[in-house]
Amino acid sequence: MTVKTILGAVCALGLGASVAAAGCNHSERWGHEDELGSANLVTPENTLKAATLIKEGKSMPLGIVIDSNTPAFPPRSLSLQVVQPNQQGGQKLDQFGYPGNYNDDLLQTWVGIGSQIDGLGHLGEGGYYYNCADEKEISEITGLTKLGVHAIPPLVGRAVILDMAKAAGKDALEAGDHFGEAEIKAAAEAQGVTMGEGDIILFHTGWTDAKLESDPQAWVSGEPGLNVEGSRYVASLNPMAVGADTWGLEPVPPAPGDGAFYGHVVLLKDNGIYILETMNTGPLLDEGVNEFMFVLGQARIRGTVQMIVNPVALY
Fold first, then answer.
1. Percent of the chain with pLDDT over 90
2. Which of 70, 123, 149, 260 could form a disulfide with 14 if both were Cys (CB 3.0 to 4.6 A apart)?
């Protein structure tokens, strides 16, 4: 699997299409200095409302288990080593006051692998990111100087899952299948769920359930997803975050006329809305849950663009 393998299909149908002229607009809602975007919608009032969705006292992880074999957008990878420092040959650590032994771990990884949050400094256009942050000023090799994921407060709110596969009459959508405003509205109506300001909106396509274990290379080489029109519609609802059970949110190959992953630009750069990828939505739907309290606290490594996450659904 190579960058060319995956991006070839993406670019063939997506990058040949024109997109909006690159530029930047400051946030009218949150001000020129804002770095949090939709995270400003985490309020005591919204948190208390979300807490009323806990009916059974149950919880479920939305993150998947990852390891060195987890497929990822190239060249991303993960390597884990478990070591026993200063314990070669069965030595014990008498300095503990007893014959102690312990394991430690070393992790070398890209943090945009598996279940992840995309920060507002992840994808931009024309050299600009959210709120006119200039790549020449914020993109240092040692970490972002603005828009770092470490600064995002705990994301807490009402979440909904829209079952796009069921709405299409399928167990799972196919790579390249895409949906927009009409399909999203139809799925929401069929499920009897509403979407509003500050919500976390997750799309279930069935892609991860169908492909990740059975055909991991196919899983990461394509995907169904949200088209650009759908991204603009969802953004108009002012959610806190938008995500899916796919590795990249948008379809691969892209919908006809769409730029590759241009929904990222619409959500992150243009609207300051966070993206959640590879959300494990299937088990919740299996339990009949499509509305719940969402809680996410990511690792706070200064200056990161993305982060591996495991949000929790409380219901």
1. 89
2. 260
Q: Judge whether 62 and 289 are in contact, CB under 8 Å.
A: no
- Radius of gyration, CA atoms only, the chain: 20
pLDDT at residue 57 above 60?
yes
Q: In the chain, where are the structural domains located?
A: 3-73+111-314, 78-107
Looking at residue 102, its amino acid is: Y
Question: 52: Cβ–Cβ under 8 A, 6 or more apart, which residues?
Answer: none
CB within 8 A of 148, min separation 6: which ones?
Answer: 119, 121, 302, 303, 304, 305
Q: Give dist(CA 308, CA 50) in Å, integer.
A: 24
Q: How far is it between the farthest Cα atoms of the chain?
A: 69
Q: Are strands 274-277 and 306-308 parallel, antiparallel or unpaired?
A: unpaired
Alpha-carbon gap, residue 231 to 263, rounded angstroms: 5
CATH 3.40.930.10 given to domain 3-73+111-314 = no
Q: Which of 12-16, 44-48, 93-97 shows the lowest per-residue confidence on average (mean pLDDT)?
A: 12-16
Supply the pTM of this predicted model: 0.92
